[in-house]
Design a protein that fits this description.
With about 550 residues, the chain is an alpha/beta fold. The chain is built from eleven helices and 22 strands. The strands form four sheets. Strands 3, 4, 13, 16, 17, 18, 19, 20, 21 and 22 form a ten-stranded mixed beta sheet that branches. Helix 1 packs across helix 7, helix 2 runs parallel beside helix 7 and helix 9 packs across helix 11. The longest helix is centred in the middle third of the chain and has 20 residues. The structure holds zinc ion. Zinc ion binds next to helix 7.
C-alpha cells in the first residue's frame, strides 16, 4: 500500500571518516543504525508515548547498549535513569490587570474580562506603558512588519486580529507565536490579545486544556513554579474598548478592520498605563514519573574532564493515533506546500516515530558508542535521551533545572531531532541538514560546527533557513535544546526538517535515509570532539540570530 515513496535500498557501505590530527575518528554504520531503529520504531514500542510500557522498553534498550559499550551510568543511584516527576497542577488565580486611561482606572480580574494562562509563573507585578503593535506580525515575503515603526521594549504589547491577507497556511503558525515573539524578539514585558480560537497547540503560552479530566488538573509541569514569566493574556472586547477609549478610535472599528485583514492605523496609547498583578497559588494534585536515560563518557584530561559536551535526543513520541486514519490520508500538510498526508496502511494506529525522534535516538547511540569505544575528547561527553519532549519538553526542562552535572560546566549542548529524511521528501535535499540556534549564544560554537563540517570527507550542506527569526515554524523553541539555551548553554539543533509523515502513523522505518543519517551522526561526533578538545570553551557572546534563509557559513 505504499504511496509516493518506495523504501530505499540501504547500502551496506560504512561511512569512513576524515582525520582529526593523526587519529582516525570513529566509523558510523548505516546498517547498525537501521537494526537499532527497527526495534525502536517497531509497533511493539507503541509509539513510545510518555508513561507507557513502550517508552520503558525503549529506555531499557538504550541503557543495555550503553552498558555493553562501557558508557558510565549518570542517572539516579548509579543507574542510567534520571527520574522526572510530572506534576498535575491546579491553579487558584487572584491575578488582575488595572488599566488607567486619562486618569480613570478600571480593574479586570482573571476570568472577568482578562484571562491569564493556567501556568502563569511566580507572583509579580508589572507596571508600564502600552504599545499597540497592530497584528504583531513580521512577514518579509509580504513586506509586512508591524514592528517597523513601533517599539515594544519594556512595554506591554497589545495586538489584535487573525493575520494579514496573503498569509500561507504555513505562516499561520506565526499567529500563535506572536506573544512569544513580542517578548523574546521585541523585549515586551507582557502581551495582551483578544480571545481567539487557537489554530494549534502551542507550548508554554496560553491556557492548556486539562490533560487528565478525571484528575481535573489545569496543567502539567516538571518545574517549580516560583519563577516569574512574562504574562501573556487574552482579554475581552470590553477591555479593549476601554484601552482605546481615549484615542479617537473605537475598538469596534479596529476589530472590523482586522476581521477584513485591512491595514491597521498606528495608534499611540500615550495616556494608557497598565499594571499586571500575577498572583496565583498552585496545588499539586497529581505526581507521575517518567525517566530520562543518561550516560557519560569521561574525558581524558584531568583538568577539563569536569566540563562537559552534552548531546541529546528525545526518547518519547506521541503513541497511538486517537482516531484511526481511514481512506486517503489526513488532508493537506501545510508545512510542505501542495502535499497531502499519505494514505496509511489499513488499521495502522501506531505513530512509530521512526524519524521523530527514532532517528535522533539511534544517532545518539552511534555517537555514544563511538566515544565509548574509540577516541575520547579531553572533556567528558554527557548523553541524554529525554522523555516527555512531545508533551512539553518535560524531560529536558527537568534536566536543565536539576542537571546530573553542573549546567554551568556544559560548554555546549547538541540536540538531534528528526535527522533521517529529506525535507518534504525533496531529493534535492539529500545533502542538507538544517542547523538551528548555533550562533545565538556562542558565535564560536557556530564557527566550530562549520569547521567540523568542512573537515569531513563529504561535508553536508548546512542550511540555516529554520533558524531565520521570520521562519513560521519557530523551530528554535520546539525541541529540547531550548531548555538548555534558557540556562545560557550554547546549543546547536540538528534536523533534516519536516515532511508529510510528521506526527502521523506513516512515520516508519522504510522511509528513513540511513546513509544520510550516518553522515549526520558523523558531523555531530566531529563537532562534539572539537568542542570537547578546545582549550577554552566556546565564548558566550549572546549575539543572537544572524544566519537564516540565504545567509550561511561561518561568522567573522
Ligand atoms: Zn521530535
Amino acid at each position: 500500500m505504499i504511496r509516493s515513496r518506495l523504501s530505499i535500498a540501504v547500502p551496506s557501505l560504512v561511512v569512513w571518516l576524515s582525520l582529526t590530527g593523526s587519529a582516525q575518528r570513529a566509523q558510523f554504520s548505516p546498517d547498525e543504525m537501521k537494526q537499532w531503529l527497527g526495534y525502536i520504531a517497531s509497533d511493539a514500542l507503541q509509539g513510545r508515548q510518555m508513561l507507557t510500557e513502550g517508552l520503558g522498553l525503549a529506555g531499557a534498550y538504550v541503557a543495555d547498549h550503553l552498558k555493553s559499550w562501557g558508557v558510565v551510568p549518570a542517572g539516579d543511584a548509579g543507574t542510567y535513569f534520571q527520574t522526572v516527576p510530572i506534576y498535575g497542577m491546579r491553579t487558584r488565580s487572584n491575578s488582575s490587570v488595572a488599566v488607567t486611561v486619562n486618569g480613570e482606572t478600571r480593574v479586570f480580574k482573571d476570568g472577568e474580562g482578562v484571562t491569564f494562562p493556567r501556568n502563569q509563573g511566580g507572583k509579580q507585578t508589572i507596571s508600564g506603558d502600552v504599545e499597540f503593535v497592530g497584528y504583531g506580525l513580521r512577514l518579509a515575503e509580504l513586506n509586512h512588519d508591524d514592528y517597523a515603526q513601533r517599539n515594544a521594549k519594556g512595554k506591554v504589547a497589545l495586538f489584535i486580529g487573525r493575520g494579514v491577507r496573503g498569509m500561507t497556511a504555513a505562516q499561520n503558525r506565526l499567529i500563535n507565536g506572536r506573544a512569544r515573539d513580542a517578548v523574546e524578539s521585541h523585549h515586551a514585558v507582557g502581551t495582551i490579545s483578544p480571545v481567539v480560537m487557537n489554530a494549534g497547540r502551542g507550548r508554554g503560552a496560553g491556557p492548556a486544556a486539562p490533560v487528565n479530566a478525571a484528575q481535573r488538573t489545569d496543567f502539567q509541569t516538571s518545574r517549580n513554579l516560583d519563577l516569574p514569566i512574562p504574562p501573556q493574556l487574552t482579554a475581552s472586547d470590553a477591555f479593549f474598548e476601554f484601552v482605546f477609549a481615549g484615542t479617537g478610535y473605537a475598538y469596534s472599528t479596529l476589530r472590523d478592520l482586522a476581521a477584513k485583514q485591512e491595514p491597521l492605523p498606528d495608534i499611540a496609547l500615550r495616556d494608557v498605563r497598565i499594571t499586571i498583578t500575577v498572583d496565583a497559588d498552585y496545588e499539586r494534585v497529581q505526581t507521575r514519573f517518567t525517566r530520562n536515560v543518561v550516560g557519560l563518557v569521561r574525558g581524558t584530561d584531568g583538568r577539563l574532564r569536569d566540563t562537559y559536551v552534552a548531546i541529546g535526543a528525545h526518547l518519547d513520541h506521541v503513541g497511538y493515533q486517537q482516531f484511526a486514519p481511514t481512506g486517503a490520508g489526513g488532508g493537506a500538510f501545510a508545512a510542505c506546500t501542495g502535499q497531502s498526508r499519505p494514505t496509511p496502511r489499513p488499521g495502522d494506529t501506531i505513530n512509530n516515530g521512526a524519524d521523530d525522534d527514532g532517528s535522533g535516538i539511534v544517532s545518539l547511540m552511534a555517537v555514544a558508542k563511538a566515544f565509548a569505544t574509540g577516541q575520547k575528547p579531553k572533556r567528558s561527553v554527557l548523553f541524554v535521551w529525554h522523555s516527555g519532549e512531545e508533551e512539553g519538553l518535560f524531560g529536558s526542562r527537568f534536566m536543565a533545572d536539576h542537571p546530573v552535572v553542573p549546567v554551568d560546566r556544559m560548554v555546549a549542548m547538541l540536540n538531534v531531532d528528526m535527522v533521517g529524511r529529506n525535507r518534504c521528501d525533496d531529493p534535492a535535499q539529500a545533502n542538507t541538514v538544517y542547523v538551528v540556534g548555533s550562533e545565538r549564544i556562542s558565535t564560536e560554537l557556530h564557527n566550530l560546527n562549520e569547521a567540523a563540517n568542512a573537515s569531513l570527507s563529504r561535508p553536508l550542506t548546512l542550511d540555516y533557513e529554520y533558524n531565520d527569526v521570520a521562519d513560521p515554524e519557530s523551530i528554535y523553541t520546539r525541541s529540547d535544546h531550548y531548555s538548555y539555551a534558557s540556562k545560557g548553554v550554547p546549543v546547536i539543533f540538528f534536523t533534516t526538517g519536516l515532511h508529510r509523515d510528521y506526527h502521523y502513523v506513516t512515520d516508519e522505518v522504510d522511509r528513513i535515509e540511513f546513509a544520510k543519517m550516518a553522515r549526520i551522526a558523523d558531523l555531530i561526533h566531529a563537532t562534539a570532539l572539537r568542542a570537547g578538545n578546545v582549550e577554552r570553551p566556546p565564548a558566550r557572546d549572546f549575539a543572537g540570530p544572524r544566519v537564516g534563509k540565504g545567509r550561511t557559513g561561518p561568522i567573522r
